[in-house]
Design brief:
Blueprint (H helix, E strand, L loop, with lengths): L2 H10 L3 H4 L14 H9 L7 E14 L1 H8 L8 H13 L6 H14 L4 H5 L3 H9 L1 E10 L4 E12 L2 E12 L4 E4 L18 E4 L4 H5 L3 H18 L5 E4 L3 H5 L2 E10 H14 L1 H8 L4 H37 L1 H19 L6 H47 L3 H9 L6 H11 L11 H21 L9 H10 L1 H6 L9 E9 L4 E12 L4 E12 L10 H4 L2 E2 H5 L3 H8 L5 H7 L4 H16 L2 H16 L1 H6 L2 H15 L10 H12 L10 H30 L3 H16 L7 H19 L13 H4 L4 H13 L4
Parallel strand pairs: 6-12
Antiparallel strand pairs: 1-2, 1-11, 2-3, 3-4, 4-5, 5-6, 7-8, 8-9, 9-10, 10-11
């Protein structure tokens, strides 16, 4: 947990102050407390001009022995049988027949919305992962040289089995004098680099930050690091810091004392966070001397640049998406190709409306607008008066149906009384899930309360930020004053992650070895993770020399990547992956719903029943708890109301007794106001069903025409004429020209579908024909013949 000693020292390399420190003989003072000796030993890394370091990290995952047997036979969460039973009842009452596979698809989608336990997600691969970690070794080493303002950090990873050896070493160098960071990441994957660069460093130039680094108050920065590092020992009770016996290995390295502190990760993280809060302004303004106004301007400029770039990228993305959509939709692609050909052809003929014609049209429209304006104003006044006269009555009636936040909260405790409309209203307006799938556990509630307490604690400590250094001793006073709030913001002691830290000191009182032992207990995973980290510090004042010659041949990362596989992978690869291709061949949930709607409509020839089938499928997927809450009869009634409310009148309308029945159901389920409906759910289902109906209707019409006309060209021409006359008023004298135009478009359709279209096919079209060309109808006709499988 004290990695910040090393990482912050690396930043300090750029500071001249560290370079001026001289070697001190800090022999162990017996009159100091144990904690003070540990602090002094660790601070030795700031007192010498250079030193070497090395160490390793060991990870080990084990399954909790008490729970291992119980989980050996555990499989993924099964389908909710109560939900399956409710779905079967609903479909049976609706006389809807779905295959076993279709019903399973709906239930599986619902199960995806349930929260799997982390242990289930962890899966059977946990054992293999544990085995790999046991045989995986992580080591590191390097040198820090303050005077030369340079440091190295080398990572070494090895995985070894009797018949397998994988070994990778990644060297890195940070040079504040040259303002460059060097690394050879190609040692990890050499085949991704160009052959000539596989054994060389690449660098990142950070010289643009050189002036900012030079502004740092070095002495103040070093003192801040010392005080920050001391907090752990200063805050620890005396019984948690003690001297323990040295091992033979310790003595061989010249150790004379070993100090152990026993704490928890939770406490150390909270200490670091709160200490940073009380010193934030001091660190930013007085130590790092950051010009906040300059930073704000830079951020503003970068934001504007990102906005411009984002807009440009968005435009490109939209254009690319449009092009991709056109490629994926043959009807749309054909429509655009036809549009371009006809436009070019008519333009070549000089087909342009004159300015005088437009002026005449504008004058006529203006006169017409003036004529109607007075009538519009009178009509608006009458409408307003009528609305105001009924508004009071409507408001009073509506308010009696709408629940307050308190009423919604009360429904959480009595879900039996909850109506469908109330559930939707409470969720939308107050974010209250009346019918929650899971009740929060005691552990979840405790964690939520701890988070709230921690937020209050952060606010309290932020008030102590006064732009002056708060020392470790001063921070201890604040910590003690708020001990009760601090305890409340952390898990109980038995639930905290234990941490043991050992500091080994030599005869001069310098830290020469540090060990960290952390034990994480993941109850939900039913696993324990043990992390052992050690760091050895050696050669104080006589560190290994860093070879700058190897750095002189380095290239920038951009140059090193040029022409390599990395460049290909990050920007130029256009080959689709097999995974992407397989995903493209998999139906999305919306596509499954469309398929369901199509099959149900073919069975029933009913908008109402099709809507209900899709409604229950989508509701089951999105809100399974709601489906389990209501009976199959209730769900059928709710679906009936949704079908009536969200459908277009020309597709599905009710009158007489059926209408009265639906209105009664609205009252029963509190589905009267717009705010009591799940608008997204209702509209999505209607969109799916209406799309299926449109496709089905057009397919039926085309199939009827196929019995009268033998060629695809003739069928297209006739279908186009039918659709055009439905949407446009065509005089008898214009029918001949419409049919003539439709025949030309039909020839174009056949050629476009066969991918041998030529502009010569539409050469007979002229100005008169232009008024009978509707590209949307052309696309609709094209798609209709595709859906009907007309060859």
């Amino acid at each position: 947990m004290r990695l910040k000693y090393l990482s912050l020292c690396l930043l300090g390399l750029s500071l001249s102050g560290c370079a001026q420190h001289v070697t001190k003989s800090n022999s162990i003072a017996q009159n100091q407390s144990t904690a003070q000796r540990a602090i002094q030993g660790i601070n030795a890394i700031y007192e010498y001009p250079n030193f070497d370091y090395r160490g390793g990290v060991k990870l080990n995952i084990e399954q909790n022995s008490t729970q291992g047997k119980n989980n050996a036979k555990k499989t993924l969460k099964p389908i909710d049988r109560a939900l399956e039973q409710k779905l079967n009842q609903y479909l049976k009452q609706q006389n809807i027949q779905l295959s076993h596979a279709q019903k399973q698809a709906v239930l599986q989608e619902a199960s995806k919305n349930e929260h799997y336990s982390l242990n289930e997600v962890f899966g059977k691969g946990a054992g293999y992962f544990e085995s790999i970690l046991k045989d995986l070794q992580f080591n590191y080493d390097g040198t820090v040289n303050y005077r030369q303002k340079i440091a190295t950090f080398n990572v070494d990873a090895k995985y070894q089995k009797p018949n397998l050896l994988v070994h990778a070493r990644i060297p890195s160098v940070i040079d504040f004098k040259e303002s460059k960071f060097y690394s050879n990441i190609f040692s990890l994957m050499p085949y991704l680099a160009n052959p000539q660069d596989q054994n060389q460093f690449a660098f990142y130039d950070f010289s643009k930050y050189k002036n900012d680094i030079a502004n740092v108050d070095v002495k103040a920065f070093v003192e801040f690091l010392k005080q920050s590092g001391a907090t752990t020992y200063v805050l620890a009770p005396e019984n948690q810091v003690k001297t323990i016996a040295l091992t033979a290995d310790d003595k061989a390295k010249g150790a004379v004392e070993k100090i152990r502190i026993q704490s928890t990760v939770d406490e150390l993280m909270l200490q670091a966070e709160l200490y940073a809060l009380v010193n934030r302004t001091y660190l930013v303004d007085s130590v790092l001397k950051v010009d906040t106004s300059k930073v704000a301007k830079v951020l503003s400029d970068e934001y504007e640049a990102e906005e411009d770039a984002s807009a440009e990228i968005t435009d490109e993305a939209v254009n690319a998406a449009a092009a991709e959509a056109v490629d994926a939709d043959p009807a749309q692609r054909a429509m655009y190709e036809l549009h371009e050909a006809i436009t070019n052809h008519l333009n070549d003929q000089g087909h342009e409306a004159s300015d005088t014609e437009y002026a005449a049209d504008a004058t006529a429209e203006s006169a017409s607008d003036d004529a109607y304006s007075q009538d519009d104003e009178h009509s608006a006044a009458v409408d307003t008066a009528q609305e105001e006269s009924s508004e009071g009555e409507y408001s009073e009636e509506a308010s009696s149906r709408i629940l307050s936040e308190e009423q919604c909260s009360a429904l959480e405790k009595n879900v039996v009384e909850a109506r469908m409309g109330d559930v939707a209203y409470c969720d939308y307006h107050y974010d209250i899930d009346v019918i929650a799938a899971d009740t929060p556990s005691d552990a979840q509630l405790a964690k939520s309360n701890q988070a709230k307490q921690k937020e209050k604690l952060n606010d309290t400590f932020a008030d102590y930020d006064q732009n002056q250094l708060v020392t470790a001793e001063q921070f201890k006073q604040l910590w003690s004053a708020h001990k009760s709030e601090i305890e409340a913001s952390m898990p109980p002691p038995s639930k905290r992650t234990p941490l043991v830290m050992d500091v080994v000191l030599d005869a001069q009182g310098r830290a020469i070895h540090m060990d960290y032992d952390l034990a994480f207990d993941y109850e939900l995973l039913q696993r324990k993770l043990n992390v052992k980290f050690d760091m050895e510090i050696l050669n104080y004042g006589n560190a290994t020399k860093i070879d700058r010659q190897a750095l002189s041949q380095a290239k920038s990362f951009q140059e090193a990547f040029k022409g390599s596989l990395i460049e290909t992978f990050t920007g130029k690869s256009e080959t689709p992956s097999s995974e992407g291709e397989s995903e493209a061949n998999t139906l999305s949930w919306d596509e499954q719903l469309e398929d369901l709607a199509s099959k149900v409509y073919l069975q029933t020839d009913s908008y109402d029943k099709t809507y209900k089938a899709v409604f229950i499928a989508k509701l089951t997927q999105e809100k399974p708890a709601l489906v389990k809450q209501y009976s199959a009869k209730d769900l059928q009634e709710i679906a009936s109301v949704y079908a009536y409310i969200f459908s277009d009148e020309d597709i599905y309308s009710l009158e007489g007794q059926p209408l009265e029945k639906v209105q009664a159901l609205q009252e029963k389920h509190h589905l009267n106001e717009d705010s009591q409906f799940d608008q997204s759910l209702g509209n999505d289902v209607d969109r799916i069903v209406e799309g299926v109906l449109d496709t089905h209707q057009s397919t039926v019409e085309v199939q009827k025409l196929s019995k009268q006309y033998k060629s695809a060209e003739a069928i297209f021409a006739r279908y186009y004429v039918q659709k055009f006359t439905v949407e446009n008023t065509v005089e008898k004298s214009e029918l001949a020209e419409l049919h003539k135009t439709a025949k030309v478009l039909a020839k174009a359709y056949v050629a476009l579908k066969a991918e041998n279209f030529k502009p010569a096919l539409i050469q007979s079209l002229d100005d008169n024909a232009a008024q009978f060309i509707d590209y949307a109808i052309f696309k609709e006709s094209y798609q209709a013949l595709l859906d009907a499988n007309i060859k």
